[in-house]
User: Fold this.
Amino acid sequence: MDITGPHVKKYLKKFIVEPEKKLKLKDYDPGWAQNETLKQMSEDAAQDLLQQMLEKDRAQLNEAQALLAASGQYSILIVLQGMDTAGKDGTIRHVMSGVNPQGCAVHGFKVPSSEEHAHDFLWRYYHVLPERGMIGIFNRSYYEDVLVVRVHPERMEQLPEKLGPESGGFWKARYQDINAFERHLVQNGTIILKFFLHISKDEQKKRLLARLEDKDKYWKFSTADLAERQYWDKYVIAYEEMLAATSTEYAPWFIVPADYKWVARTVVAEAITSAISGLDLSYPKVSDEQVKILMDAKRQLEAE
Ligand code: ADP
Assistant:
């Protein structure tokens, strides 16, 4: 993706991680609001405005996806990562609500099966990549293999001792593998957009508590989420290193402020439509010869 072009909205650029530049997540405000005025509005007025934005995002995504499908040259891979409760599912629902379901596929990734662990770490992701014309959304991804596995090395697959995490430069090598993998995909026509939904620890607490305060949300609560929360600081370090090492010009990371769900959803939707509009796609051209055939067909049908 060309992340410097005029098609990328100015406000989005500040969320793009500069390649190789060390970063601290505390320098990114998870509560950043695109529209400060919204916070000062009455509840009703704010809801109206949000509804309008949602409709606008939907219409733009729909149009962008139709073009992507019609031209059939590129595919789009959207990677979503974030701490538990960061809002990955809701963001996907928002993005999906705008597009033709036939042009979009979502894949979630859980703890790898023994078959998956018997292969290299990229294997399970490879065969569910989006085909040309399609948008593929990864709800978690191969980045888990440098995040959860880094925080919990005991969850790693069995590697030859010489090649395992005890060997020097292991994580760096994994980042390089990921960069090479993404570069290969980009060179073959995949546009890759990666979103880290950045929430604060306080906001996570609120969201976890909300799941315990509403009977209809009980099912969403997992004690595993509470256990992972104890590792918050370790996750922060793993994320910081990973984001700096794997944000590239061809497959950038966006650090999306996610304490306000509407902000996160708008940023992700607008980054996607920006990327597709930057491709300068057009509907397939119809030659004079083809127009003649179509008009003949029309006459035939009308004469029936
Ligand atoms: P989600 O939280 O995405 O809605 P789950 O609650 O089922 O779905 O969580 C999926 C779990 O799978 C997470 O705890 C995640 O860390 C774990 N997971 C995903 N990919 C890997 C991986 N490559 N290695 C180890 N664990 C993984």
User: Anything to note?
Assistant: The first helix runs from residue 10 to 13. The pocket of adenosine-5'-diphosphate is lined by residues 84, 108-112, 139-140, 144-145, 148-149, 155, 222 (CB under 6 Å). The chain has a mean pLDDT of 92.
